[in-house]
Every structure is written in C-alpha cells, then in structure tokens.
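ARCHIVE RECORD
Type: protein–small molecule complex
Small molecule: N-carbamoyl-L-aspartate
Source of inputs: curated submission
Record status: active
Notes field left blank by submitter.
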Amino acid sequence: MGIWILNARVVSAGNETQAKHVLVEGGLVARIADADGTSPDIGGHEVIDAKGKLLTPGLIDMHVHLREPGFEHKETIATGTRSAARGGFTTIACMPNTRPVIDTVETVKYVLDKAETEGVVRVLPYGCITKNELGRELTDFEALKEAGVIGYTDDGVGVQSAQMMKDAMAKAASIGMPVIAHCEDNTLVEGAAFSEGSFARKHGLKGIPNESEAIHVGRDILLAEATGVHYHVCHVSTEQSVRLIRQAKQIGIKVTAEVCPHHLLLSDEDIPGLDANWKMNPPLRTPRDVQACIEGLMDGTIDIIVTDHAPHSEEEKARGVQLAPFGIVGFETAFPLLYTKFVETGAWSLEFLIDKMTKLPAEVFGLPWGTITEGKPADLTLIDLESEKAVDPAEFASKGRNTPFTGWVLKGWPTLTMVEGKVVWSV
Ligand SMILES: NC(=O)N[C@@H](CC(=O)O)C(=O)O
Ligand SMILES: [Zn+2]
Ligand SMILES: [Zn+2]
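STRUCTURE (tokenized, with ligand):
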C-alpha cells in the first residue's frame, strides 16, 4: 500500500507553483499527477491531504554535528535526526568531531549502525582528514571510504600544515573523494570569541580577523589546483573568501562552497551583548561580509546552504563568552528564516532557495536525492508558507537550545517530513 499526497503545490519555476497529486509507493515517487480539481483513483492507498501546502524535495544538509559518540549530553543521533526531520531535512551529513572522532572504520560503523537503528533521517558521515583531528597524520582514506564516509574533513579545526593538506588532497583525488575544509589559521585567532569589528571593539575584546579564514581558502585553492581534488569550503563567512572562490571558479578549479543562514542574516552589529548564543565559528562578521556572502550565493560562487547545526548544553553556553564553546543549533529554524527573510521579501525566488537546499547539495556531492522525480526515492517535505510562528527553543526536538533567533516571527514552517516513502515526522 502506498500514500497519495493530494493537493500539494510543487515549484515549477521561479515563484510559480503547480497543484499536484503525488503517489508514493515502495519508497519511491510512483506518480506525479496534475491536480486540476479532480481526485485521482485512490485505490487502496492511504491519503495525506496537503491542502495546498508546498511540497519540496526533502531538504539536504551537508554540514551538521550530531555529537554521538561522546557528547551525548549535547545531542544524540536519535535527537539530532528528529530535529533534522522537524526542520524538513531528509538527508544530513555529520561532522567527525565527536569523541572518539570519526577517524576509524569502527567509529564510522558505530555512527551508521546508530543512524540505522535510532535515527529517523538519512545520515551520511564524514571521516577525519587527520587522526584525532590533530593535524599530524592522515587517516586511512581508503578504509574510511570503504566503510561509507562521503568525504574527509577535520571540521572544528583547520588543518594547519599546508603539506598535510596537500597530501590529503592528493590522496583524496586519487580515490575520487572530496576534501571539505574548516578554514582557520590558528596563529591569527588565538583565543578570540568574536570577529574583529564593532562588537569586539565596543567590549574591548580581541577579535578574529577575516584573514584567519581567507588565508586557508586561498592556500587550499592553490593546493586544489595542484592536486585536482574536489575541494569544498565549509561555512564561508568573509568577503575575502567569496572573492577567492569566485576567482578560482572562473579559472576552472574544482572548488565548491557552503554558507549558513546565520552568516546571511546576522552581522556582529546585531549581537545584543555578551551572550554565548551569539558565539559561533566562524563568527558573525561585518555587514559588508554578510552582503558579500549573499551576493556570492546569488551568483553561484557559493553553491549551497548548510546549517552547521552545532548543539551545546545550556550549562556549557552559560560559562561566559570566553569559555563557552562555539556553535548554534540550526535544523529547526533554517528554512523558515530563509523563506521569511529572503523569499517573502522578494530577494530570492522560492525555486532558488529550494535548489540551494536540495538539488544543488545533491549535485555537489554526487548524491541521488534532492528532486521530486517519478521512479526516484520519495524524500519529501511539506511546508506551510502561510502560518506565522515565533521561534521558541523550548519546542526544539534538538537537545540544543543555543540559538540567537529566539522570538523571531517566521513563516515557512515544515509540517511533514517523509524519508523513502515513510512519514518520519508530522505536526
Ligand atoms: N561551528 C561551530 O561554531 N562549532 C562547531 C565546529 C565547527 O563547525 O567548526 C562545533 O562542533 O560545535
Ligand atoms: Zn567548522
Ligand atoms: Zn561544523
């Protein structure tokens, strides 16, 4: 028995949508029919009446932290995947900065097993570039690939040695795998919590300069050119990084990039005070950087949107801005934030936003999801574009409540998430 999703609206082009009935059967999209006021033959199938809500391909998030194993007080695969489902995500790629880090076949297997038994959405793990993310010795790339990782990254820290990064890229290129980089030169950061800008100046704090990110982006672009690897830049946040990536793409270097909602919506000038819910890495930069990230996304320099969902406990975030860990949660606010602030305002089309969170991440990483196509897996999300609701962290399925968006009144809330034909969450 399958499920008919009746009277959904599917984006056709720009802001245009078409009314469709979609039959899901055997985990696949079996039929997409025009909903011209008529009802299809339901047969013995179940029915979900979408009542005109938007039906999108399940959202894909290529940069998330599920914290398991080792930091289960922050998040688990069970809670993190439920949070993802509430945010409309059906496929998520988890970062390896767990404890132990994901640098062995055993840990990859552990994560995949947990995801299978306790998770509700598809989880794709990354493996570390270096053992323990210490930057000293490469992991066994072939073995990790064999175990099921989709790429290599030391997210959480930058790979400080250029030679180590070059070796990693050469190795990854030789087996057709991408290198995903958290770009940060430690010598330029040294303990700062916020970016170099008006907020840090006002509070007499040492700032994180833009170059700490962009120096790695520039270095790695040259190394990607030399090695031919697919190089993907994590959480781009500076004007300089956008410029370097734009130039690299122009001359045909295989570089792709991602940006987070918070770097598109907030600058350091918005930080209300010394509150660790506004502390994340990379930090909120200047309004000029925010503008550059938006332009980079719009002209295709930045390929995709990711959340960098980074839950931490309330106790950890209450340690004061200097000691609190970097990171904010992202799953359950991403789509409503971007829909309300960019699509409703007319800056972007609905198609543009959805592509950046579905089709394009799939294309960048060569994944088979991200579209609504007959015969393809039924990863689908229903979204209510009408109802307004304020962000309330108490409602999150995530263990993390660490968000700077509390109280923001938004539209575009997901109401149902389906993975391979199975409803994994609905309101
Ligand atoms: N983004 C963050 O502020 N924090 C991430 C690490 C990372 O993505 O670099 C985390 O693991 O908490
Ligand atoms: Zn990072
Ligand atoms: Zn991250």
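CURATOR ANNOTATION: The first helix runs from residue 77 to 86.
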